[in-house]
Amino acid sequence: MLINETFLSIQGESTFAGWPCFFIRTTGCPLRCRWCDTAYAFHEGSDRTIPDLVREADSHGVSLVEITGGEPFVSPELPDLARALLDTGKTVLIETSGAFPVPAGLDRRCRIIMDVKPPGSGMEGTMREETFQALMPGDEVKIVLADRKDFEWSMKFLDRIGLPESIPVSLSPVFGECRPQDLASWVLESKRVLRIQIQLHKILFDPDKRGV
User: Fold this and answer.
1) How far is Cα 204 from Cα 122, in angstroms, rounded to an integer?
2) Which pTM does this prediction carry?
3) C-alpha angle 190-193-201 in degrees, rounded to nearest 5
């Protein structure tokens, strides 16, 4: 399996924010989001076996593992890796965009964290409404926003897909570009049940450093 990097860190986003987490970053992503902070994962990587990745995850003694990217859903070995991690008792998160369908055979004990890509990302045209409609209880939606336009677009998108209230939605401002205070105002004005997050890993660690 082509893997860009693995590392132990603090989960910075989602309802699991703040938890120690072992990250497995896959190589490759067809999207090119304007604010992508892991462009090095588009091409860099090395072959790793699934048993080796599971052993490394176990060696850190944490129960939470996130498979991220890149874009994990374009990796054909993803279902096998996820199942192997789940079978050791890990809680497995998979961070993905809404551009790709849930892979056939993916063990749905996994918790999918699906990103909405608003206009500020430059990738809004890749969003597949049917992919979001396939989410299940335990899954989550995450949206990174650059401005008020992104917020308004995202709210219309959520209304259009009919996302059930059982799927939590977390909003984060683009680091260094969108003021968290502004995002808070938009959420309060909307009177919606939304979670505001500030990308915690970029505050705890150097935001330009890999493997955090």
Assistant:
1) 28
2) 0.91
3) 105
Contacts (Cβ under 8 Å, ≥6 apart) of 125: none
CA distances 39 to 110, 131, 175, Å, are 25, 24, 16
Strands (E), the chain: 2-10, 20-26, 46-47, 64-68, 91-97, 111-116, 140-145, 169-173, 195-196
The domain ranges of the chain are 2-204
pLDDT tens, per residue, the chain with 212 residues:
999 999 999 998 899 999 999 999 999 999 999 989 899 999 999 999 999 999 999 999 999 999 999 999 999 999 999 999 999 999 999 999 999 999 999 999 999 999 999 999 999 999 999 999 999 999 999 999 999 999 999 999 999 999 988 999 999 999 888 999 999 999 999 999 999 998 676 677 666 666 66
Give domain 2-204's CATH architecture.
Answer: Alpha-Beta Barrel (3.20)
